[in-house]
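Q: Convert this sequence to structure tokens.
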Amino acid sequence: MSDKVNFTPLRDRVLLKRVDQEEKTPGGIIIPDTAKEKPMEGEVLAVGKGTLDEHGNLHPLEIKVGDRVLFAKWGGNEVKIDGCDYVIMKESDILGILNK
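A:
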């Protein structure tokens, strides 16, 4: 599902696209758009180069393009790039990587 985006995050920032939640509950009830919460799961589309320590050494990010991640409900900044909605956040705001 990876989108190609003409954007490179700086330092420890990550660009991700929210993954839509199911439109039905496990019991089969359809959830209307007005009742849906924003998903807290996303696919990483681009990552920054990493952070610099006090000695100037670069520490690359653990997150990589293509990872599916969980993040805090109100984490990140929502942006629109080329008409599509994305979220930019620091790697530290990501709670974890979903294993495939």
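The chain has one domain: 13-97.
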